Amino acid sequence: MKRGRKLKGLNTLKVAKEADQLEKQQNQYLGPSLEDLPKPISFDILLRLSTKRLLICRCVCKPWRNLISDPEFARLHFERAEAFPLIRSSSRTHISRNLYLVEPPEDNPGYESHFQMKLETKFKIPLRNAELVMNGEGDANVGCSSKGGVKRKRCIKLRPKEHKLNVVNSCNGLLCLSAPSLNETFMVCNPITGEFINLPVPTQADESSKKFIDSGLGFSPKRNEYKVIRMFDRQERPYERIREPITGREFYSGRVAEIHTLGTRSWKRIGYAPCSYLEFPTYLSGSLHWLFIDINISDYIISFNFDMERFESVPQPPLDNEEMSLDMLWNMSLGTLRGRLCLCDCSDSGYIDLWMMEKYGVQESWKKAFCIGTKTGHARCLRGLYEPMSYLRSGAILFFHRLSNTVFHFNVKEQCSSPKFLKVRGIKSKYEAIAHIPSFISLKDTVTYDDLEVLNISSRCAGFKLQGETKALFLEIEDLDSDFGLLSDLEDGDIHYGSD
């Protein structure tokens, strides 16, 4: 028996040596690998890949992961990266941590007929009050199943009120996240790297105005700092008579603004804030912009300058309509396309008037870049807001139509091109989308403070999944004229058709 065991051991060593020799021969036959190339050449190869392909390459081996995580490569990639829609379920009854990046398919960039694409580029955002879930406290309804003796991840159902985070806006590859109600919880997250940081607890707002709180993330180029602004009605009474920073009107108000610089430990009050609805927070050129929904229609685009830490009015485009109204403002959306501020005017049923500011801050540089028809062959159109998402190098412009859960695709280079409605399918839910530029830049390289605690989503809450997270999402071309498929997942009254 001893001899047999000894012989078995010798055979094992022999097999191992033969395997090593075979691997060396294969490597010699295959030639040098990517990590053997000079860095500039390796970077040039990787920069040609989509975000989806880069994420796959990052998981191949450690040398490839190090290349893609290299700060120099991350910077070069971000400089060339395009914005894409980032889609998320906005259900009121369940929480979704998943974000789906919509990149055009490599084999069908024009979304030709009978097209269907699985959204495989998926990321997660953190949970609010995650410690309670990990410790088994709070409202977590935990279910655990096993099949064939193999344990599966715990499936948890959580109440959105205690654990959901809203995606406020995107800035330089980072997302600003906040609690839905009083915005007492703030996080900044890079969904590509999975990193996030918790912000200090801000000043408590007036309970009666919890739906009237605005916030957003921006960057100060002069100070090289990221900042989060928050506007709310303070609790202290009585309110004072103030002059509003945008309209100049005088009235009693307790609406104030606070600013937090990422990496510090506190919020700083900077004065009074505009007292109207602010929609579509959009970062560009060191300022955060909003549509200013107010009775005073003359200044309906405002901004907050992060260098000067003050509110400013933005020059308005010369719209075709002689008289502006609140109804018209509710049919407009704000965004950026190819680094330019843009306004989508959807007040004319069946058309999107897309205005772009060619030179930032100059009113005369506003141009009506495109007038895009949204009508089908039977003169039927989907009314509602079209939010600008992407202006791709291929010439395609992507919008998101929230009422119908569709990505609206139109190629401005092809004169005979017809618009395409790409329906989000997979989970019966409403969806929201935000324009986002993917970034592989680490938060540790973005916010340079010694005592900053950078957390990782994959290392926290990795042992469980939320209900519905494993279901796949698809984009599929819908024909408005055939079976009204766009209405299939919506409730009555959510969508309106227009016709001539």
Automatic annotation (TrEMBL):
This is F-box domain-containing protein. Pfam families: F-box-like, FBA_3. It comes from Rhododendron griersonianum. Residues 31-81 form the F-box domain.
